[in-house]
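This part of the workshop introduces the protein records we will be handling. An example says more than a description, so a record of this kind follows.
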Amino acid sequence: MKILGVTGGVGAGKSTVLKYLEEAYGACVIQADQVGHEVMEPGETAYEKILRYFGPQILSEDLRIDRGILGAIVFADPDKLKALNAIVHPAVKKEILRRIAWAEAEGKACAVVEAALFLEEKYDAFCGETWYIYTNEDERRRRLRESRGYTDERIGQIFGNQKSHEEFVSRCTYVIDNNGTAEDTCRQIDKRMRE
């Protein structure tokens, strides 16, 4: 089974690429952010560890972890953010590997792993190749203002914390240029999948 990694800056259009791979190629799409939310649910692998470390003040009335409260705590304290990441990231990686094994057992031809911190968390270690979805910064800014309502200041903060274009290019196997039309992007995907 082919295992692809998909990464790129926020607003680059990774979701569009994932949707196309799922619809056109029947790929099993695994998004690390979504898995991260799931492993923090009551009864899941990271829930009890997070609760033990941060205490019951992070819980909402339904006993779920309130990500808003938790986020405010960890973004104000780098040590607590590091502790949270040390709990969540291994649980996410383990669950992603479980889903890849499931996809293979189900006879899927392809699994696609997407993560914001793909390179930082070394997800490329278990992917056959990694695609960098490239969209220029101006276009990404426009998309984030329109689709998410982000301010220029917020966008600047996010961009400042992400890998540079050069680093993505140097560490990824293949670049999908997502500056044109959706059809242009799909043609590039089809070409690579044929290869």
User: Anything to note?
Assistant: The first strand starts at residue 2 and ends at 7. Residues 1-27+110-195 form a domain with the Rossmann fold fold (CATH 3.40.50.300). The mean pLDDT is 93.
